[in-house]
Amino acid sequence: MPMRLPARLRTGLDDIRHRRRLDTYVTFLLGLAVTGLGLSGVVDTRVVGSAVLAGVSFLVLNSVPQLQRPDTEAVLRDRSDYRTVAELLRHARDLRVYGPTAVHVLVNSAEIRREILDRGGSCRVVVQAPDPAQLRMTALQLDSSMDLEMTLRQSLSVLRRLGGHPRFAHRLIPFNPGFSLLVVNADAPDGYVIVETHGFQDESIADRMHIRITKAESARWFAYWTARFEALWEAASEDPGTGNEPGADGAGAGTGTDGGSGTGEGAGAGRPPHDPRGTLTAGRPE
Questions:
Q1: Could you tell me where the Gly residues compositional bias lies (predicted)?
Q2: Which one of 84, 94, 114, 188 is CB 3.0 to 4.6 Å from 260, fit for a cystine?
């Protein structure tokens, strides 16, 4: 029966074979050699002591963790890196959205009603007001892959149909701040935000940069972007086409930071805006 090497020795041999942690093993072997020479009287004890101290100092220095540069590509993402809205909604209890039209959330309106609103969750959404002059400016900034005015009309139709739900509300803002924003479960430990910068005249909506920030990873920046949604909500006004402002008793979709947000069209409320790609992602609220 072949003799099995101790696990630590096998690990050491494997490390040496693959050139891992060679400096540590060299220091260990030199220490053994100097100690053996000292015990045999070949080397003076003062030399042995100095060598041991040098080895210990090296090991202490080597134990300091190396500063790792952040992987920019892991932080700055695009639309393809995120789950679909339908997948996101299974875990959302509080959804807050800003997008010029929020169309890529609204096409999942039946899921929003079923997965969030009908389960006691809350939703709020802010979209751009249908002011022709402002829409022309926003259209100049955004990509040309959609008819902004027509898409906004479709979105408003969906929002107004959802306006009767007690835990849903939407408002209109007269300008585009240059980003889209999705806030999920703002008051829960698993909360996160997805921020999308709009850039200028991108060739495609998929080109835009996205950043996902969880509350666990950065409470500071999570709170910052959650507050930005609240600032948008306060600056926005009620849609004159519907009376969907939530009540002050909290039954509505939230006034203040603990309300929800969302966009959607209830089942049977009409056909949602068309999604030509069929796979819309949570990282793309507009």
A1: 249-269
A2: 94
Q: Residue 263 burial by CB count (10 A; 0-12/13-18/19+): exposed, middle or buried? A: buried
Confidence of residue 255 (pLDDT cuts 50, 70, 90): very low
| 142-151 pLDDT tens trace | 877 678 899 9
Mean pLDDT in residue range 168-180 = 94
Decide: 126 and 238 in contact? Cβ < 8 Å.
Answer: no
SS3 for 236-247 is CEECCCCCCCCC
List of residues 6+ apart from 130 with CB closer than 8 A: 149, 152, 153, 156, 172
Structure tokens at 37: 């020479």
d(CA 27, CA 69): 28
Residues 203 and 161 in one domain: yes
CA end-to-end distance (rounded Å), the chain: 68
Write out pLDDT tens, residues 112-151: 899 999 999 999 999 999 999 888 888 888 877 678 899 9
Give the type of residue at 60: V
Q: Which of 178, 260, 187 is nearest to 219 (CA)?
A: 187
Which one-letter amino acid corresponds to residue 50?
S
| Threshold 0.90, pTM exceeds | no
**Three-state secondary structure call for residue 145:** coil
Evaluate the CA torsion angle 283, 154, 228, 144 in order and state its sign.
Answer: positive
Which amino acid is present at 139? Answer: A
SS percent in the chain: helix, strand, coil, step 5: 40, 15, 45
> Are 162 and 231 part of one and the same domain?
yes
Q: Do 129 and 42 belong together in one domain?
A: no
